[in-house]
Write a sequence for this structure.
């Protein structure tokens, strides 16, 4: 995993040993993680959704933390031109931590102990440990954190302290949690192409690309290691968590750098298919409306004059008069957050099962949408009923062990948006159309009738 420097406003005034290293987190360059560092290359739906649901905004409770050995990592990276290695990487350290398994339509992971670590931030200095946790990490109550500090689950410099312990600069906080990962779909991860430098797969929906939020082992990069022994891959780009289709990984840093340059230069052509409500017009339709982020935290965008310029081209592939839905080809020429989904909603043809851009609250305005989505996610997170504590099967102090969550349905794990084709310097690659996008042309229907 790769990390970035926590750039405080006065970071240049601090000595090198005082720089705080934070985990990479964010959504399309917004909503940063430890140290509020913003970056791209993350599963936008996933991070927005899980950070909002859990109320967790830092590495101690929402993302992979910073180990004490990262000082050496920083020393190695500071000598590079960009101070950042290409892509994200998951190594074999995860192999013995937990093992995902198939349970019907789900991939599950048995709960496991995990340690979140980070250094004390500037705004935490001089505050008590309990004040920091109760105000910064609101996923649990103050009583829960007091108990965790007293029993040693939360430590400072790996030592047990009191809740009233006052934090100082350069101290490291460790939060040991019993981690529960949400289930994802059990659809196989099919290999589309493999060479010495690249590994291309057809990613099923609902599975994040790399560890983020509550997901660590139920991610594509970890699952490729667990199921196909493909560890240490570098992610070249991302897809929203609910979007399926073509996904490219590099096997070496040099290959990742090459693909990264192609993506930044927009030399990579991407084609998507989606299923929308209504009869989409025939012919090519281009949408150039700028996109603005309405809510960084929830992950909602809309068109707006103050947004970033972008271009998406659409073309009707098939209209089904029975369901009154259309299968549409989409070609984004820019990479804005939720670009295809936002442009389709603006054109009046939202994706038929889009939980964000096809909800009724849009009639009431953007603020109503943000409030409604936040409320639904919070209700989902708190919907589980509590069961009596069982010492044999539950972890002491872990509320997730006692809470019974409702598994997502197959429909809830799928968005009718599929990364169909991708063309770059190494070739043209295509992922088979999902069942919801399959249709028969008039020629195919006539041939089938003739055979019958």
């Amino acid at each position: 995993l790769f990390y970035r420097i926590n750039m405080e406003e006065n970071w240049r005034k601090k000595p090198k040993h005082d720089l705080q290293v934070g985990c990479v987190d964010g959504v399309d360059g917004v909503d940063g993680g430890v140290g509020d560092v913003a970056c791209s290359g993350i599963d936008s739906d996933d991070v927005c959704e899980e950070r909002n649901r859990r109320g967790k905004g830092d590495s101690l409770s929402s993302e992979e933390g910073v180990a004490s050995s990262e000082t050496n990592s920083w020393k190695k990276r500071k000598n590079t031109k960009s101070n950042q290695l290409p892509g994200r990487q998951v190594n074999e350290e995860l192999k013995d931590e937990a093992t995902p398994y198939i349970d019907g339509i789900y991939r599950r992971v048995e709960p496991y102990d995990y340690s979140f670590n980070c250094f004390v931030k500037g705004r935490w200095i001089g505050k008590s440990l309990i004040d920091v946790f109760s105000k910064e990490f609101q996923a649990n109550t103050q009583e829960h954190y007091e108990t965790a500090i007293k029993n040693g689950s939360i430590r400072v410099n790996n030592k047990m302290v009191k809740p009233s312990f006052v934090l100082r600069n350069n101290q490291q906080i460790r939060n040991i949690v019993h981690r529960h990962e949400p289930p994802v779909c059990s659809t196989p991860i099919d290999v589309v192409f493999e060479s010495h430098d690249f590994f291309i797969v057809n990613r099923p929906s609902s599975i994040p690309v790399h560890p983020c939020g509550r997901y660590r082992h139920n991610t594509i990069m970890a699952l490729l290691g667990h199921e196909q022994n493909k560890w240490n891959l570098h992610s070249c780009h991302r897809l929203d968590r609910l979007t399926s289709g073509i996904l490219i990984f590099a096997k070496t840093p040099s290959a990742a750098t090459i693909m990264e340059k192609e993506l930044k230069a927009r030399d990579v052509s991407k084609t998507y298919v989606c299923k929308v409500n209504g009869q989409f017009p025939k012919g090519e339709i281009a949408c150039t409306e700028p996109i603005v982020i309405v809510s960084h935290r929830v992950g909602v965008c809309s068109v707006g004059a103050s947004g970033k310029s972008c271009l998406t081209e659409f073309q009707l592939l098939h209209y089904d008069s029975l369901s009154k839905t259309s299968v549409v080809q989409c070609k984004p020429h820019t990479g804005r957050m939720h670009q295809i989904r936002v442009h389709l909603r603006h054109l009046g043809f939202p994706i038929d099962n889009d939980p964000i851009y096809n909800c009724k609250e849009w009639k009431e305005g953007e603020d109503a949408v943000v409030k409604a989505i936040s409320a639904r996610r919070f209700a989902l997170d708190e919907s589980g009923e509590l069961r009596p504590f069982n010492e044999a099967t539950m972890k002491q102090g872990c509320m997730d062990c006692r809470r019974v969550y409702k598994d997502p349905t197959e429909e809830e794990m799928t968005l009718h948006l599929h990364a169909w084709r991708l063309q770059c310097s190494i070739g043209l690659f295509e992922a088979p159309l999902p069942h919801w996008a399959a249709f028969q042309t008039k020629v195919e229907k006539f041939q089938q009738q003739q055979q019958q």
Remarks:
- The two ends are 57 Å apart (CA to CA).
- Residues 1-59, 61-83 have pLDDT under 50 and may be disordered.
- The chain is about 20% helix and 25% strand.
- Residues 3 and 73 are 9 Å apart (CA to CA).
